[in-house]
UniProtKB/TrEMBL annotation:
Stored Pfam families: Formyl_trans_N (PF00551)
The species this protein was found in: Thermobifida cellulosilytica TB100
Name this protein carries in UniProt: Phosphoribosylglycinamide formyltransferase
GO molecular function: phosphoribosylglycinamide formyltransferase activity
Top-rank lineage group of the source organism: Bacteria
Limits of the Formyl transferase N-terminal domain: 2-165
Length: 189
């Protein structure tokens, strides 16, 4: 989120951050407020079930009418109410479809892979199953543990996310089945 705020400060980037939301208090909210970006929190615990929370989150997002919702670092499954009204982009610390879920870096290390990486993808109703927009490989080094590998992945994730969001905003995209193609017109789908 901080990398996107920094990139969006340059008018040539082609995208503006219209709001930053979370499901709990987070440091990123203060960073957004410092940048003059509106923030909101929709706490999961305030709702009786996931569907009710998703409807409340969708309503808050709708107040800002975003062209894209970026869910980087957002560790909740977004449901139909959010996904029906929004195009959502997420990043994941593995080369999907390998190692989906919350423990991707640990799972990659446990499996013994020599190359893992980061994926930017559109979000669907599954867990890390949406169409892939971009991927960047990261080599697993001898002696890596979850913390060291995850830190190297985060470095490429930030660059990739800034690049992908900027390209989507400036050039649009088409989606043919699971194939994502960047286009020439903003927000085509």
């Amino acid at each position: 989120m901080a990398a996107l705020l920094d990139a969006a400060a340059d008018p040539a980037y082609g995208a503006t951050v219209v709001a930053v939301g979370a499901d709990r208090e987070a440091a990123g909210l203060a960073r957004a407020e410092q940048a003059g970006v509106p923030t909101f929190v929709v706490p999961f615990s305030a709702y009786s079930d996931r569907d009710e929370w998703n409807r409340a989150l969708a309503a808050r997002i709708a107040e800002f009418t975003p062209d894209l919702v970026v869910a980087a670092g957002f560790m909740r499954i977004l449901g139909r109410a959010v996904l029906r009204e929004n195009t959502v982009v997420n990043i994941h610390p593995a080369l999907l479809p390998a190692f989906p879920g919350a423990h991707a870096v640990r799972d990659a290390l446990d499996y013994g892979v020599r190359i893992t990486g980061a994926t930017a993808h559109f979000v669907d109703e599954g867990v890390d199953t949406g169409p892939v927009i971009e991927q960047v490989a990261v080599r697993v080094e001898d002696g890596d543990d979850v913390a060291t590998l995850h830190e190297r992945i985060k470095t490429v994730e930030r660059r990739m996310l800034v690049d992908v969001v900027g390209r989507l905003a400036r050039h649009g995209w088409t989606l043919n089945g699971r194939q994502v193609k960047l286009g020439d017109a903003p927000g085509t789908e």
